[in-house]
Design brief:
The protein has 129 residues and is α+β, with helices and mostly antiparallel strands. The protein folds into 2 domains: 30 residues; 70 residues, 2-Layer Sandwich (Alpha-Beta Plaits), CATH 3.30.70.60. It is 43% helix and 25% strand. It is built from 4 helices and 4 strands. A 4-stranded antiparallel beta sheet has the order 2-3-1-4, with helices on one face. About 8% of the residues have low confidence.
């Protein structure tokens, strides 16, 4: 019996190559079409990127042991910082910068004092959904 294809051996050898080429072509063309599409989660990430990681103009400042209340108040007042609350009696304070200086610049200023153990931004924390 005679084959319908003029070169059956060549067709059999070319079939896997044609199949791979068509799969590769379709996957790259679909990817190219989706390249301009906006993923669903991009909006959520973009929206969250505008929320600052810490509360503007607020810090947590921890003083070393044995620093007097008067010295603490002097350092904070001298740096134009108001006490919002005292978290650990005589050591850790939640404070607010009284002017438009950046949190980073005030931290740099405060950590130059030997009486201060650390100063850090008042970070925002969120529960994961």
């Amino acid at each position: 019996m005679r084959s319908l294809l003029p070169f059956p051996d060549q067709a059999i050898r070319l079939a896997p190559i044609i199949l791979c080429a068509s799969v590769l072509w379709s996957s790259t063309s679909c990817e190219a079409m989706n390249r301009n599409a906006t993923p669903i989660s991009t909006f959520e990430q973009h929206e969250k990127s505008y929320v600052p990681r810490f509360i503007p103009h607020e810090l947590l400042v921890k003083f070393k042991n044995g620093i007097s209340r008067e010295r603490i108040e002097f350092i904070l007042k001298h740096n134009r910082i108001a006490i919002l609350s005292e978290i650990q009696f005589g050591r850790l304070y939640h404070v607010k910068i009284s002017d438009d200086r950046s949190v980073e610049s005030v931290i740099t200023q405060l950590t130059s004092y030997q009486e201060i153990e650390y100063a850090e931004p008042n970070h925002r924390y969120e529960m994961q959904k």
